[in-house]
Structure formats: C-alpha cells, structure tokens
C-alpha cells in the first residue's frame, strides 16, 4: 500500500532555511536512527537548523553513527524536546505510523503548528500529517528517505555520513538483505556502496558487538525458555521479571531473540513474550509468508507493525498472555 503526496509542496518548504525537528519511534532501532540521522545530515546542507528527537534512549551499538550524540532524548530532557517540537516549522515523522508510537510526545506533535511530513513503511498510517511518503512495500524507512532525496533530485547532497546512516537501516530492517527485500533495496545498496559506504565495517559494528552476558542471556532463553507448538508451526520464547533481574537484562539485550525460533525447520510463527521489571507484558511477533502477525497483534494485543514483524502488549499475566497467543493463533494460520 502506498500513499505518496506530490513532492512540490515540501520541496518549496525546505528550499529556505527553517527550524526542523525529526522524530522517530520509541526504542529506536537501526532504521529509525539511520533514517533520522541521514535526513538530518541531508537537510543540514540547506542551512536548516535540524534537531533529531528520540523518545527514548538509543542502543549503544549505534554510537558509531555520526552526530547521534547530538540527538535530544525525550526521556532525559522532556521540556527541551517538547519545546523544539512546538517551535518547529517542519516536523518529519520517520519510521512510525501513529502518534501512540511516540508515547506522551503524541499530543505535543498533534498540537504542534508546524508542517508535518511522514516518511514510513508501516501498515495503516494515521491521518495526522500534511505530507505522506508511506509505502509498505519498502524494506525500510531508510529506503524511503533515499527515495525522498532522489525525487528531490538532490542526491549530490548525500555525503558519506548520510549514506552510512541509510545503509544502516537497510541492513537492520532486512536482516542483512534476507527478508522484506525488493529489487530496489539492492539498487539503493549498490548506489550507497558506490558513494563509499564501508558495509563490512558497518556489519561488524552492528552485529559483532555482543558481550559475554548477552550470549548468556541468549543461551538461557534458548535452553530454558523456549516452547514449541509443532502442530501450529509456532514457537514462543518467554522471559519473566525474575529473568530480567537475575541477568540484568536491558532493552537491547533481547534484540533479535525472536528470530531464533524461525531457525527451527517448519516454524512459521514466532513470539517473544516478556514480563518487564515494570510488570508490563510486551510481545514481539514474527511470521513467514502469508501469515499476518500484524492482524494478530492489532486484534489481540493492541499493537501492529508489518505483516511479518509486529509487536504489541498485554494486560494479563505472562502465562495468560502465552495461552492467549496460542489460543488465537489458529485463526491467523492460512
Ligand atoms: P519489535 O518486535 O522489533 O519490537 O517490533 C516489530 C515491529 O512491530 C516494528 O515495526 C514496530 O514498529 C512494531 N511494534 C512493536 N511494538 C508495537 C506496539 O506496541 N504497537 C504497534 N502499533 N506496533 C508495534
Ligand atoms: Mn523500519
């Protein structure tokens, strides 16, 4: 599904220096961070004053990306983040489709007077923006930021930092070009590599950065917290509050854990269900082929995302959440 507005209005808006804010979703991932920093680097070339706002802290593995340490983190600097959004003339919303994805900043963005531009690849974008470049067939928001810059005819304003930030989102949102790909991703990757992106080092920075503790968490999850349901072609990994405390698990420590389930031959649906130290229950869902975990997450877990990668939350206990997932799953198996 595609919603793409005419680019001329936004072209004229960015043609003179403006106050611009770029905001992305809570718990920003490689695509959220990469697209935000790339767009910032690009817009800086026009002489704008551009601020990036992350609702919550970014994973340390992305610290190597240029200018990431200049981003405003709302959780740490609430007043400043709100003020920048309220004063912005243009607000770019990247890699999210609805204002609930930026938590309590949602109302601030909603009420802000600035021109709002949404660049995103999630299903069901909400109608809060003035300009949309929304395409669910895109691998990543980084692919769409590349398209945005190309359609402006301004590729020469991409420097190596911009290209590297864009390549980051291509890698992280496609599992290094294994899922959610399309012919264009490879063209974009080739173009970025031609601009000088060192994809080997980028990979090394992003993937070969585990600590021994993180490997131990993975070991514990795979050995003691994996349940499989062969009759449903599904598996669940769960972690409870005690696991979080015992292994001192932080947000980034469980990134990608859900994907291990799909490595078992025949598995088509995977769920990582966790009881956070706060008591909150969160789900990460993945599927193969035509099975839509987006519909499952939206219908039963107040969530959403993409057809094959979604997330959500639950108000009942960890055990009941696992039971509910297993009970409703047959309705979504095609
Ligand atoms: P992850 O499982 O990696 O946290 O998220 C997978 C996908 O689901 C991402 O595209 C993310 O935006 C989406 N997602 C995760 N949690 C939620 C949620 O609570 N609500 C919605 N609407 N989407 C979510
Ligand atoms: Mn994305």
Write a brief caption for the model.
With 334 residues, the protein is an alpha/beta fold.
Shape: globular
- How helix-rich are the residues, as a percent range? 25-40%
Which regions contain 5 or more consecutive residues with pLDDT less than 50?
none
CATH class of the largest domain: Alpha Beta
Strand proportion: 15-25%
Main beta sheet strand tally, sense and closure: 7 strands, mixed
CATH architecture of the largest domain: Alpha-Beta Complex
Strand order of the largest sheet: 1-7-6-5-2-3-4
Per CATH, the superfamily of the largest domain is: inorganic pyrophosphatase (n-terminal core)
Hetero compounds:
guanosine-5'-monophosphate, manganese (II) ion
- How much is the average pLDDT? 97
Distance between the termini: 21 Å
Please trace the helix and strand order, writing H or E for each element: EHEHEEHEHEEHHHHHEEHEEHEEH
Structural class: alpha/beta
Number of helical stretches of at least 4 residues: 12
- Global Rg: 20 Å
CATH topology of the largest domain: inorganic pyrophosphatase (n-terminal core)
């Amino acid at each position: 599904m595609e919603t793409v507005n005419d680019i001329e209005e936004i072209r004229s808006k960015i043609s003179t220096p403006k106050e611009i804010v770029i905001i992305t979703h809570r718990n920003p991932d490689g695509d959220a961070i990469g697209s935000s920093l790339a767009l910032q680097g690009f817009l800086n070339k026009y002489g704008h004053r551009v601020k990036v706002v992350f609702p919550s802290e970014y994973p340390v593995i992305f610290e190597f990306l240029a200018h990431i340490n200049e981003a405003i983190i709302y959780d740490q600097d609430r007043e400043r983040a709100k003020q920048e959004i309220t004063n912005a003339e243009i607000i770019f919303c990247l890699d999210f489709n609805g204002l609930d994805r930026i938590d309590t900043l949602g109302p601030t963005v909603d009420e802000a007077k600035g021109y709002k531009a949404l660049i995103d690849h999630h299903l069901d974008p909400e109608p809060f923006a003035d300009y949309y470049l929304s395409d669910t067939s895109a691998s990543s928001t980084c692919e769409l930021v590349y398209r945005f810059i190309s359609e402006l005819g301004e590729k020469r304003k991409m420097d190596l930092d911009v290209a590297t930030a864009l390549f980051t989102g291509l890698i992280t949102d496609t599992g290094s070009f294994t899922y959610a790909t399309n012919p264009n991703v490879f063209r974009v990757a080739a173009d970025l590599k031609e601009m000088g992106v060192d994809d080997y080092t980028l990979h090394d920075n992003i993937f070969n950065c585990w600590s021994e503790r993180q490997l131990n968490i993975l070991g514990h999850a795979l050995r003691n917290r994996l349940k499989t349901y062969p009759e449903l072609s599904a598996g669940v990994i769960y972690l409870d509050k005690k696991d979080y405390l015992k292994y001192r698990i932080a947000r980034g420590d469980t990134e990608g854990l859900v994907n291990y389930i799909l490595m078992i031959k025949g598995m088509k649906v995977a769920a990582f269900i966790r009881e956070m130290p706060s008591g909150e229950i969160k789900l990460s869902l993945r599927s193969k082929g035509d099975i839509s975990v987006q519909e499952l997450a939206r219908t039963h877990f107040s969530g959403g995302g993409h057809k094959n990668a979604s997330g959500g939350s639950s108000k009942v206990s960890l055990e009941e959440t696992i039971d509910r997932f297993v009970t409703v799953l047959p309705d979504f198996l095609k």
